[in-house]
Amino acid sequence: MAATLPHSHLHLHLPLRTPDPSSRRRHRFRLPSLVAASRLQNPTTATHPVLPPPAPAPSAALLAAEGASLAPRREHRFSGSVSTPTGSAAAGGLAEAEDAVLRRALEVRRAVAAEVLVAALSGGKVGGLTYINNLTARMGLFVDRIVVEAAAMRRDRPDLAHMSFNARAKVYIQESGLVELVKSFEELEEIIDYLESCGVRRDWIGYVVSRCPQLLNLSMDELETRVRFYTDMGMDEKDFGTMVYDYPRVLGFLSLEEMNSKVQYLKEFGLSNEELGRLLAFKPQLMACSIEERWKPLVKYLYHLNVSRDGMKRMLLVQPTIFCLDLETVIAPKVQFLQDIGVRSDAIGNVLVKFPPVLTYSLYKKIRPVVIFLLTKGGVKQDDIGKVIALDPQLLGCSIAHKLEVSVKYFRSLGIYHFVLGQMVADFPALLRYNVDILKPKIPVLEACNGATTERPHRISTLLPGGQDRASAPNISGQQDQHEAAVHADRI
């Protein structure tokens, strides 16, 4: 028979299963945290830990970028499959954030570079702080250059790599020589007053300095020497001021040695000091042309065209722009065109000397249209067009609408046949350059002096140059010549 339990054990409730020993271990480990929590909840606790301040919330751009970087990449395996959204928007936000950071850093560097520049200018004899600040505010490009060069010094110059950005910026400003170039108000006023006394109007000074800032770098002694260089050629104040305004670099850009060499080369054409002074006052751009690259090849080319030194002198005085033109692309094609229309090679030089502006005209907008007009409406035959241009190259400078066409219409109104007019122009090309208003009153007088004839067209044509032997030519040949001239004009 089973033994009975003691009376004290009758109300003892035993667990239905054996407890796990690991659970005791978990409860033991959980006690410190519960104690800490109770201490935080109990305000009367004597000792409690000091917690750090909460971290700032991350920006939306950083959260989007982090989410996009953690998102798994999935590829489309079949149509209709679901893919995660791309990170282009997140990447764009991250790029904008990085760009903003770089911009702020760059602005800080620019501000530092501007302060270093102000300090460098304050150490010189430039002026007051207000003037220096205003000057620095207008030197944004140079400030940017300071930032770039100072950053490059750390990489390219090991001896300066250990220095700070401010120190490297100061080194670059010193090496650039900027401080010595900046003028004070007194120095600028002295230069302006001197130029004004030499003929440069005060309201021109800004334009002149903006086109040639090198003028402000010259000392007063050097500036006076350059001014005397031109005034010794006979220039008065008006010519000198106009020359400087037309081409400011003529005074401050070239060195004195280069100016002397070009003047001596121009004198070899037989120019006197006065002629040279008038030439440079009219075309100061000549001083910018290279002797070796521009003048010597042109002189050699003109020499092969039988142009003498006196002829070159005339071309230089009449149209100095020729010595500024490119030989291969501008001058040579026009000479070749004159040869193609029938001007003899030995007469080309005479054409250029007689009418130098022909080399400055546009070949396709001026020269060719005039030649085509003479061949068609002018009645000049193909065989005679070269002779016409050689005898009177000034025709190439006449306006078709306001001169040549008016003259042709007037002579045709007198009853002169088309082919007869072409023959008259071939014998006397200057006929088309006559002023019609001056010629009109003389026609009746010439008719009265010559006497009456049977037909008016023949009578009028005999009164004009070249028409005495050709007025009675048959009209059929004139029509054939006109057709041939039109065909030749189409070929041109």
What is this entry, summarized?
With about 500 residues, the chain is mainly α. Helix content is about 65%, strand content about 0%.
Explain the overall architecture.
- 63% of the residues lie in helices and 0% in strands.
- It has helices at 21-41, 60-70, 88-122, 129-137, 140-156, 165-176, 178-181, 185-197, 205-211, 220-231, 237-246, 249-252, 256-267, 273-282, 291-304, 309-318, 327-340, 345-354, 363-376, 385-391, 400-413, 418-427, 436-439, 442-450, 456-463, 475-491.
- Helix 11 crosses helix 14 (273-282).
- The protein is elongated, with a radius of gyration of 47 Å.
- The chain contains 26 helices and no strands.
- Keywords: Transcription, Transcription regulation, Transcription termination, Transit peptide.
- Residues 481-492 have a biased composition (Basic and acidic residues).
- It holds the Pfam family mTERF.
What is the overall pLDDT average?
Answer: 76
Q: What is the third-level CATH name, the topology of the domain at 362-492?
A: Transcription termination factor 3, mitochondrial
Count of helical segments?
26
Q: What is the makeup of the main sheet?
A: none
List the helices and strands and how they pair.
Elements: H1 21-41, H2 60-70, H3 88-122, H4 129-137, H5 140-156, H6 165-176, H7 178-181, H8 185-197, H9 205-211, H10 220-231, H11 237-246, H12 249-252, H13 256-267, H14 273-282, H15 291-304, H16 309-318, H17 327-340, H18 345-354, H19 363-376, H20 385-391, H21 400-413, H22 418-427, H23 436-439, H24 442-450, H25 456-463, H26 475-491
Helix pairs in contact: 2-3, 3-4, 3-5, 3-6, 5-6, 11-14, 16-18, 19-26
